[in-house]
Amino acid sequence: MRKLAVLGLALALVFSLAAVAAAAPLFTISTNLSDFASCTLQEFDDTTLNPGVSVVSTNGYIDTTLDQWVDFVNGYEPATTTWSFATPITGFGGFFDLNPEGIGSGIHISADGYDVGDITANGFWGFFSTEPLSTVMFSNVPTGQDHFYMDDMRYCPVPVPPAVWLLGSGLLGLMGLRRKLKA
Hints:
By secondary structure, the chain is an alpha+beta fold. It has helices at 2-21, 162-182, and strands at 27-30, 40-42, 53-57, 61-63, 68-74, 81-97, 107-111, 114-119, 123-140, 145-157. It has a single domain, classed as Jelly Rolls.
């Protein structure tokens, strides 16, 4: 009977966590670099990305002479750039130059398939999410195009909450106590 109660409690916990994880994220846009002070910096001074960061891009590349990400997204032929993170993130941003070769129409940003917003001006632009995310995609705004540079990309990995460490150590302690009582 006791095993059934523990199993029922464990299943309830799993389903409640799944329900929370399935919630659609809410996004907060920020143009203030200081909001991202505690986030991880990805510089583009060489072609090496930080561990756990990857990118798939139709036209983008790291230009080591400019120390920037150089990219082109347009509405006439599909062109996107998707940044992926092995550790989920709750924030993403960077310095954007939207008109290195003339005025463009902006960049559309989505994260894990959810629309975040459009970057339509030069300078720092970023967002925070209420839910962990693993991908950020750049695409064109509808029927538009943009050739852009991005510098000093920042992303905010989800920290492991102290409650998880406490729960894990408590479970290990209970397992140790159970073994001791059985012996």
